[in-house]
Amino acid sequence: MPLKEAFLSIEKKRALASWPRTTSLHLSKPRLLHLGNEFWTRRLAPAQLVLKDAISSVARADGRTMAEEVKEQVKDLMKATVLMRHPQQVQEIICSLRKGGPNKLQVISDFDMTLTRFGFNGKRCPTSYNILDNSKLISEDCQKKLKDLLHYYYPIEIDPNRTVKEKFPLMVEWWTKAHNLLCQQKIQKYQISQIVRDSDAMLREGFETFFNTLYRSNVPLLIFSAGIGDILEEIIRQMNVFHPNIHVVSNYMDFDESGYLQGFKGHLIHTYNKNSSVLEDSKYFEQLQAKTNILLLGDSMGDLTMADGVSSVGNILKIGFLNDKVEERRERYLDSYDIVLEKDETLDVVNGILTHILCEADQAGMQES
């Protein structure tokens, strides 16, 4: 063993023996971290302890640490916004997804605040409902009533102290009231494209890579949204990334013969019933029986059930965007999602994982050679 490596090995053992190994979110004492080939210390913010402390202490059989392997495979996992409760388990899932490749992979994603930005330049970005609510077509009186509903029900939706059972009927109540108000506004079908064009809708940074990579690799993308399907489809179309591999399950508008909004089609989909109970087109998952590996993307506890309609799940990697009320909800997200992205407005981590799973870098290297 070279002298430098021997020295680092000895120092590593001493360091790990002298520091308590914990993933507590409430510790703030300095940590000795092993990243790449260097040792360094820093006082970690509580949000970083889960990933940094855990991966620094796991050694691989070939002498490399978990941090080195994760870093080599998906460099974006080392971003400060990334949190993991069980990094080794994440590593194993990613390896399994890579072995399966594109032929076994499907992606299931929420839309609002998952594929779209939560905020930009200190300002909240609109959801698909907000885009319609804030449009010039909606009367001031209706806008006020819709905002009153938002201010009353949204805190309930994200309240970590309430159970899903408590929230469920209240979400139905909120969506139903909002739908009834919108149906009074004489919205016409042809106006949807202009409403979106005039809005501040923003997909997350890296969206082109995300959508185009999945399309190029023939990986199906199910967008399972409690928003408005007509609006979100138009957003994706105007961004020129609505490809044939995309299937959307959402609340779609129902227009009368004259083209005016008269209601919404099918089952009402809200935050906490995004599961097989509202999937009218059950044939979607039947057609994808060979796609047993799943990458799931969401931003709420309700998004965790989006893959329930998949009959046979081989491996599933759940990535959660923690956008709001971070301190109050961090622990629960870490318990529920494999990877938590805290206040991250990009799709960098998702794209990095996809590139690795689909072996795009390897294929590019082979083509160049």
Automatic annotation (TrEMBL):
PANTHER family: 5'-NUCLEOTIDASE (PTHR13045), 7-METHYLGUANOSINE PHOSPHATE-SPECIFIC 5'-NUCLEOTIDASE (PTHR13045:SF15)
One Gene Ontology term from the biological process aspect of the record: nucleotide metabolic process
Enzyme class at the top of the EC tree: hydrolase
Keywords for this protein: Cytoplasm, Hydrolase, Magnesium, Metal-binding, Nucleotide metabolism, Nucleotide-binding
Domain of life the protein comes from: Eukaryota
InterPro entries: HAD-like_sf, HAD_sf, Pyrimidine_nucleotidase_eu
One Pfam family of this chain: UMPH-1
Catalytic activity entry: a ribonucleoside 5'-phosphate + H2O = a ribonucleoside + phosphate; N(7)-methyl-GMP + H2O = N(7)-methylguanosine + phosphate; CMP + H2O = cytidine + phosphate
Lineage: Eukaryota, Metazoa, Chordata, Craniata, Vertebrata
Function per UniProt: Specifically hydrolyzes 7-methylguanosine monophosphate (m(7)GMP) to 7-methylguanosine and inorganic phosphate. The specific activity for m(7)GMP may protect cells against undesired salvage of m(7)GMP and its incorporation into nucleic acids. Also has weak activity for CMP. UMP and purine nucleotides are poor substrates.
MF-aspect GO terms: 5'-nucleotidase activity; magnesium ion binding; nucleotide binding
Oligomeric form and interacting partners: Monomer.
Name of the featured protein: 5'-nucleotidase
NCBIfam families on file: HAD-SF-IE
